[in-house]
Inverse folding.
């Protein structure tokens, strides 16, 4: 080859590189347009984000509303202002002043102001109002909310509380319109889904699909990039996996996570997805109704606490993806969690299981010499039915004979709320705040929003409150260790921690700038997500 | 024995069906002895493929599939037989009595039968299960509701022919009471049709139970229902196809055998088809 020809080839290659470079950079530049598709694991039924606790409700309305704060879509570990531009804290740590964005409008064109914030949080904090998520987190901490002027609102705390800002940033603490609350009384209806979020509520076909459309007047210019979001209501693992394999959904980002076997199936079917394993900041709980026989008897509760084989549950029901026994997961709560070496020696968590089973059997025989028959309830979502069958098989070894009763998702929650069960074989509770206080205020304290077993122990309440109020990190850690040890030492709790749940997820490669939140509920507004094709 | 031999030669398919039914009954009766493990015992590793230790593998929670298939035979036969005996018996009595009584009673009763039979059976069964709740006994109740009108219609048509016969007239003429005529003369002459209905509807009952359990509206998921096992198997169809194969094969064989046997019973008892056997 001549030198001239070589030089021409080199020049051509250099030209190609120069031309390609802007194109390559353009791939990282957000592209507007397109509809994101994903799924909801059940039909929400009710849509009131202040009053409900199932993930299906939060998912259905996530992009519609804004909060005062949220977790930064660009860095989900950080709290950022949403409707609040900035905020200040008084020197005593008990007064938070939020300065609101100006010019924000509701989806119906009405202007947003501090009156809407006050109306929303007066509702959530009302002692008569059942708010199992936002309310359960904030009520222990917040004394009241005041609208200082049209663009300023103040939260007065009962005590300086480290979890306050993380709780307020929770996806459940969304601001609703005062005029909508006045008109409809609640936020259950599709017509009441008027927010300030990046998307407007377009459609809700029961059992089929929930659609959002772009809010052209969103208060952050240029956002959202997407034209809309479509959530298919897909009930049942096979249906969800089939949709993923067929390319009908672009991500699997929350509960229920895929199992390993499902992730492997998807990997064989599609090469245009990224599959990853992660924790979902969700705890798998068993509940015993402490107000009804046989579990109004502490010995019977102790027997179940001993008999449930958490390690087997993780190995079989979660296909190994989980942390058994822990009330706080060391991977999430760091050194606020008791060391697993200590936890795994506690009765109920010991392996092999023989000693636990023998003790549990004696307890059952003492009160029910011929064994006892109970109804074991479960919502028919995810792989709950499989977990329930495992639980029934485990309890059979100690003389408790369970008959499985399945509920449709919303009906199950209604039954749990009314105490209309003897034992709930499994119920995952996702943390709404990535803070050690979360699990206790959800499931263990008397006022816990998901304390379905109606467990009430003044010492648990006192220890949880002490830990919540403690601002010194070392003392706070000691307080949570004391609380965990106390709960384990009781051994007869109506709420039984089985495992922290992990699982497999995927995103379509054309989905850009999506970052999973630290909890199941965060970062599913998709305000900064775009599609590369 | 000679008659049996002749029967086998004339009805080889029926004999094959009878053999399958015999095996089904034997498995159901001997389930506690035949099954190596309890149907709800989840002590093993999940998704184990078929092996010497687990000839049909294990399922998603570590239960022995073969044990559940064996116990499933007991559940299927229990549901099939009980629902059919109650449903067909109730329907037969209904049909025979209304055929004998006649008039407005017969007309009104047949309109009720028409109304119930107009509903798609699975939809009706689903609605009943939604109202009654999931349990094996409620599946039986739903099946009884499905089977009764069919039996009533069929036995009524047979009974109408019997009612018109001379010996029935003779019985009335000598002053026999209505109930004596129905119980001593009418019902026994409908027995052949009754037997055919029972044998041919057991397979139908098994399929309906499996269908209801498959869609989650039948027996509770932890019961060893073949249909319920199919539902669990679908979740892992690529990973553990044995979870679907063996329960599916069991349903197919049971229904096939019962159908062949039932057809053969019908052929033997129908005088128009009996030929030289009688």
């Amino acid at each position: 080859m001549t030198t001239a020809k070589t030089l021409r080839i080199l020049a051509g290659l250099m030209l190609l590189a120069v031309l390609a470079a802007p194109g390559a950079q353009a791939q990282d530049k957000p592209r507007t347009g397109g509809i994101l598709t994903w799924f909801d694991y059940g039909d929400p039924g009710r849509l009131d984000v202040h009053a409900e606790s199932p993930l299906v409700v939060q998912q259905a309305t996530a992009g519609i509303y804004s909060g005062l704060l949220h977790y930064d879509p660009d860095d989900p570990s950080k709290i950022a202002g949403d409707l609040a531009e900035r905020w200040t804290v008084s020197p005593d740590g008990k007064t938070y002043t939020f300065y609101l964005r100006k010019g924000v409008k509701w989806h119906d064109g009405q202007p947003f102001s501090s009156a809407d914030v006050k109306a929303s949080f007066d509702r959530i904090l009302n002692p008569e109002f059942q708010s199992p998520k936002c309310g359960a987190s904030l009520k222990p901490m917040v004394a009241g909310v005041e609208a200082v002027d049209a663009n300023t609102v103040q939260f007065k705390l009962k005590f300086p509380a480290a979890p306050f800002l993380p709780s307020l940033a929770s996806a459940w603490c969304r601001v609703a319109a005062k005029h909508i609350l006045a008109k409809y009384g609640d936020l259950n209806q599709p017509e009441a889904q008027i927010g300030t979020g990046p998307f407007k509520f377009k459609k809700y076909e029961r059992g089929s699909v929930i659609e959002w459309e772009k809010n052209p007047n969103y208060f952050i210019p240029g956002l959202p990039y997407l034209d809309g979001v479509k959530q298919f209501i897909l009930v049942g693992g096979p249906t969800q996996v089939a949709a993923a394999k067929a390319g009908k959904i672009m991500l699997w980002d929350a509960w229920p996570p895929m199992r390993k076997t499902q992730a492997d199936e998807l990997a064989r079917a599609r090469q245009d997805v990224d599959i990853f394993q992660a924790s979902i900041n969700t705890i798998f709980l068993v509940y015993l109704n402490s107000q009804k026989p046989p579990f109004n008897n502490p010995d019977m509760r102790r027997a179940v606490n001993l008999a449930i084989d958490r390690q087997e549950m993780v190995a079989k029901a979660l296909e190994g993806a989980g942390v058994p026994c822990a009330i706080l997961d060391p991977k999430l709560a760091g050194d606020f969690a008791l060391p697993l070496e200590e936890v795994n020696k506690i009765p109920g968590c010991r392996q092999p299981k023989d000693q636990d089973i023998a003790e549990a059997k004696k307890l059952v025989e003492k009160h029910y010499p011929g064994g006892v028959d109970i109804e074991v309830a479960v919502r028919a979502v995810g792989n709950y039915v499989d977990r329930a069958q495992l639980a029934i098989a485990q309890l059979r070894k100690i003389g408790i004979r369970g008959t499985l009763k399945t509920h449709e998702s919303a009906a199950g929650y209604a039954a749990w709320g009314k105490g209309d069960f003897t034992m709930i074989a499994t119920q995952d509770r996702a943390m709404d705040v990535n803070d050690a206080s979360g699990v206790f205020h959800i499931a263990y304290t008397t006022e816990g929003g998901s304390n379905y077993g109606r467990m009430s122990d003044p010492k648990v309440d006192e220890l949880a409150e002490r830990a919540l109020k403690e601002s010194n990190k070392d003392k706070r850690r000691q307080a949570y260790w004391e609380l965990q040890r106390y709960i384990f030492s009781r051994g007869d709790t109506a709420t039984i921690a089985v495992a922290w749940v992990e699982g497999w997820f995927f995103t379509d490669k054309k989905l850009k700038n999506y970052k999973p939140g630290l909890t199941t509920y965060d970062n599913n507004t998709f305000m900064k997500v775009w599609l590369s094709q | 024995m000679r008659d049996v031999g002749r029967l086998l030669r004339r009805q080889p398919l029926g004999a094959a069906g009878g053999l399958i039914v015999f095996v089904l009954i034997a498995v159901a009766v001997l389930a506690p002895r035949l099954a190596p493990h309890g149907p709800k015992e989840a002590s093993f590793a999940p998704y184990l493929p078929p092996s010497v230790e687990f000839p049909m593998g294990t399922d998603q929670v570590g239960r022995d599939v073969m044990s559940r298939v064996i116990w499933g035979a007991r559940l299927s036969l229990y549901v099939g037989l009980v629902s059919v005996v109650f449903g067909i018996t109730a329907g037969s009595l209904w049909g025979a009595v209304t055929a004998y009584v006649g008039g407005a009673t017969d007309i009104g009763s047949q309109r009720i039968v028409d109304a119930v039979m107009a509903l798609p059976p699975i939809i009706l069964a689903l609605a009943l299960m939604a109202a009654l709740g999931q349990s094996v006994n409620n599946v039986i109740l739903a099946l009884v509701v499905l089977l009764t009108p069919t039996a009533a219609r069929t036995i009524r048509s047979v009974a109408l022919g019997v009612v018109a016969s001379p010996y029935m007239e003779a019985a009335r003429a000598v002053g026999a009471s209505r109930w004596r005529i129905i119980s001593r003369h009418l019902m026994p002459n409908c027995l052949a049709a009754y037997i055919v209905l029972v044998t041919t509807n057991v397979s139908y009952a098994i399929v309906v139970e499996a269908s209801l359990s498959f869609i989650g509206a039948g027996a509770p998921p932890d019961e060893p229902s073949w249909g319920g096992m199919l539902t669990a198997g679908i979740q892992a169809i690529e990973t553990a196809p044995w979870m679907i194969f063996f329960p599916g094969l069991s349903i197919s064989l049971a229904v096939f055998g019962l159908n062949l046997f039932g057809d053969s019973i019908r052929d033997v008892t129908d005088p128009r088809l009996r030929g030289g056997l009688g």
Observations:
- The radius of gyration of chain A is 25 Å.
- Chain A has a mean pLDDT of 92.
- Residues 3-28 of chain A form the longest helix (26 residues).
